[in-house]
Amino acid sequence: MDSLKLDRKIKLLVVDDEKSITDLISTAIGLDGYDVEVANSGIEAINKLKVASYDLVILDVMLPDFSGNYVIQRMRDNGDLTPVVFLTARDSTEDKITGLSLGADDYITKPFSLEELSLRIKAILKRHLLSSLKNSQVLFAFDIELNMDTFEVTRQGNLIQLTALEFSLLKYLVVHANKVVSKAELLEEVWGLDMYSDPNLVETYISYLRKKIDIFEPPLIKTIRGVGYSLRDMTRRNKTGLSQ
């Protein structure tokens, strides 16, 4: 994270009930220069998150009291958009979709490579922290407004709750409004480091955005078959005689 030049150490919370795992992760990522704290249960994690701020949370799904899904749900319900990397022994697509839909930024299956974990952490932190360090600005496209300081999104004046990753994806679509962006471009620019080879990840998050953004008329997120996606108002084009 040298390129960020922060005036403080980046603070991470590692949540897992297995001490051997928290010790291993804490030692490994501590060598990357992070300030690391540990919680060994869901309630301990929730209590720590109430009194301290973290730049990223590494969260085990299977905890002895509350599940990781419950912990992240509590975080998001409280407006806490801190990036979360899930750790799990289950690798089914359904489990991953559940975690991502709750607002997780990444999903790593045990056993995992510490090098891979380190790379994913760096990619998420770079994306999240660089956004938060930018000067105050508000982005507009059609009737969508993104506040880059508060990470608030409104459409037609209605506040919309997005996860950090959904916000990043919508921001990219807003910045490139009326242009077509490919799945490969979104994977590289929003997720970073080309970590994912499965384009279904983009489709999944586009679906999440549509359920939150396109509940208003007109729908703005368009699929351009065989090419990618575009944020555009087709009703304006219809008025000029072009078909949707």
Number of helices: 9
CATH superfamily of the largest domain: Response regulator
In what order do the strands lie side by side in the largest sheet? Answer: 2-1-3-4-5
Shape: globular
* Biggest sheet character: 5 strands, parallel
Mean pLDDT: 83
Low-confidence stretches: 1-5, 237-244
Specify the CATH class of the largest domain.
Alpha Beta
Helix content: 40-55%
Beta-strand content bin: 15-25%
User: Mind telling me which CATH architecture of the largest domain this is?
Assistant: 3-Layer(aba) Sandwich
User: What separation lies between the terminal Cα atoms?
Assistant: 45 Å
Write down how many β-strands occur, each being a DSSP E stretch of 2 or more residues: 12
* CATH T-level fold name of the largest domain: Rossmann fold
Q: Count structural domains.
A: 2
Radius of gyration: 19 Å
Secondary structure class reads alpha/beta
What is the H/E string? EHEHEHEHEHEEEEHEHHEEH
Task: Write a concise synopsis of the structure shown.
With 244 residues, this protein is an alpha/beta fold. It has two domains: 2-133, Response regulator (Rossmann fold, 3-Layer(aba) Sandwich), CATH 3.40.50; 138-239, Arc Repressor Mutant, subunit A (Orthogonal Bundle), CATH 1.10.10. The protein contains nine helices and twelve strands.
Structure description:
This protein has 244 residues and is of the alpha/beta class. It has two domains: 2-133, Response regulator (Rossmann fold), CATH 3.40.50; 138-239, Winged helix-like DNA-binding domain superfamily/Winged helix DNA-binding domain (Arc Repressor Mutant, subunit A), CATH 1.10.10. The protein contains nine helices and twelve strands. It has helices spanning 19-30, 42-51, 68-77, 93-101, 114-133, 164-175, 183-191, 200-213, 234-239; strands at 11-15, 35-39, 56-60, 84-88, 106-109, 138-141, 144-147, 152-155, 158-160, 181-182, 221-224, 228-231. The strands form three sheets. The protein has a five-stranded parallel β-sheet, with helices on both faces. A four-stranded antiparallel β-sheet has the order 6-7-8-9, with helices on one face. The protein has a three-stranded antiparallel β-sheet with strand order 10-12-11. A hairpin with a 3-residue loop joins strand 11 (221-224) and strand 12 (228-231). The protein is globular and about 55 Å long.
